[in-house]
């Protein structure tokens, strides 16, 4: 018996030749549903991705994973007080109506720079092992000169001090063009379920002396406690009024 496939068409019909007779057989249906099925799968995957991107900040999580992986392969930084820097460029995603890096994007970039910093000096792993959680309790940023589209910059991150409850971090956006500090941020990284001192001791296997707080940090810390006291007093008043 001489079996030949004469042609396949996009409407998914196979025409087979049995000697001289043309016969259409059931095979064509299977092929059809296979193609329909893969088209459906594709739509499903696209739909799922659309839903994911609409509801989750997918780029944030991907970027976070990338930063962790990147830091993983870089050498450890033994000095906990050392300044570390990572490079960045202003991308279309970062722009606002003014065509420069939007104010909110700076804080996002700072997040990644801090992840990177904590990964490289061992703070991240140590907190994880000690069951501590690092959460941002306060941040203040000062914008000094805007970063333009495609401008290259680096973020320099360093631990400037700590107390019983938190690390204080300074992060600077430095333009690669001329070394100008375009923005500077202070961040209070609260340590929950543990203390900064224990984490540092765990990493360095010895006690580390906290450096003297710079003037701006002292003011900032008093600003935080003044704000906290004011809000506490307010809620105290509200409770009395009830
Ligand atoms: C720019 O920042 C503001 C917050 O100040 C935010 O509401 C807005 O969505 C941001 N725009 C872009 C394009 O990131």
Spatial sequence of strands, sheet with the most strands: 4-6-7-8-5
By DSSP, the count of extended strands is 8
Quote the distance from N terminus to C terminus.
95 Å
State which percent range the strand residues make up.
25-35%
The CATH architecture of the domain at 74-211 can be named as Roll
Total helical segments: 6
**What is the CATH superfamily of the domain at 74-211?**
Hotdog Thioesterase
- Describe the largest sheet: 5 strands, antiparallel
Using only C-alpha atoms, the radius of gyration works out to 29 Å
Structural class: alpha+beta
CATH class of the domain at 74-211: Alpha Beta
Cofactors, ions, other ligands: 2-acetamido-2-deoxy-beta-D-glucopyranose
Query: How would you describe the shape?
Result: globular
| SSE string, helices as H and strands as E | EEEHHEHHEEEEHH
Family: Belongs to the THEM6 family.
Transmembrane segments: 41-62
Keywords: Membrane, Transmembrane, Transmembrane helix
Protein name: Protein THEM6
Topology:
Layout: E1 3-8, E2 14-18, E3 21-23, H1 27-55, H2 58-72, E4 84-89, H3 103-120, H4 123-130, E5 133-143, E6 152-162, E7 166-175, E8 181-192, H5 196-204, H6 215-241
The structure holds 2-acetamido-2-deoxy-beta-D-glucopyranose.
2-acetamido-2-deoxy-beta-D-glucopyranose (NAG) binds at residues 96, 102-105.
